[in-house]
Structure to design on (222 residues):
């Protein structure tokens, strides 16, 4: 091969090296792509008693886990935390709400408490004060509230049963919460819908309770 060929190639090689170096420097100078912002998951906090804790039911049978499954499917970006405790009174809920709000920072709080107050014949004013504390604490923390009302059997006397139901409606109106006057309305009239204790709904009717609550809960999930 003529020696002049190798000499003629050198300028081309140097030019290619210069172009490659300039290209690499330009790439290094480009700002790193920004990471996509992490999706924010909003929380629905359920504060209830055995009716929401799923007394006598399997882990996935209660109206709360059924609602959780519905939210997972239809409302991406939302989750449900069920902080319900069997036997809980409104006083118990009022004592726990602050820590739950601070820890979870929920966007929606569902309050399903008071039934155990009524069954024990606790003073109506006491129940109202406790529920009011839960509502105001939730709203002050920036959460929307769904209040699930309850009714007592007539054997407790007309004055007590009417006053008990009136607590819920008065608080819902005063604090402009989403509201269901009688949480168990769609299943309450049939004894067959309840477990042997005649207090807790069976697994078979939990979907009906979920579907009864959903028209009030769903619109809050925005």
């Amino acid at each position: 091969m003529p020696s002049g060929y190798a000499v003629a190639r050198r300028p081309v090689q140097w030019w290619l090296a210069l172009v490659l170096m300039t290209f690499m420097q330009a790439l290094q100078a480009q700002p790193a792509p920004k990471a996509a912002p992490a999706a924010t998951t909003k929380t629905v906090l359920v504060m209830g008693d055995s009716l929401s804790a799923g007394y006598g039911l399997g882990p996935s049978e209660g109206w709360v886990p059924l609602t959780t499954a519905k939210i997972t499917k239809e409302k991406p970006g939302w989750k449900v935390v069920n902080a319900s405790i069997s036997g809980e009174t409104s006083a118990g809920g009022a004592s726990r709400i602050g820590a739950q709000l601070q820890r979870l920072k929920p966007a929606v709080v569902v309050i399903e408490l008071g039934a155990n107050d009524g069954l024990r014949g606790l003073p109506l004013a006491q129940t109202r004060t406790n529920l009011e504390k839960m509502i105001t604490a939730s709203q002050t923390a920036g959460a929307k509230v769904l209040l699930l009302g309850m009714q007592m059997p007539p054997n407790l006397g007309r004055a007590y049963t009417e006053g008990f139901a009136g607590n819920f409606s008065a608080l819902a109106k005063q604090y402009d919460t989403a509201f269901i006057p009688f949480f168990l309305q769609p299943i309450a009239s049939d004894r067959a819908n309840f477990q042997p204790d005649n207090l807790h709904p069976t697994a078979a009717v939990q979907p009906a309770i979920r579907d009864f609550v959903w028209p009030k809960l769903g619109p809050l999930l925005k």
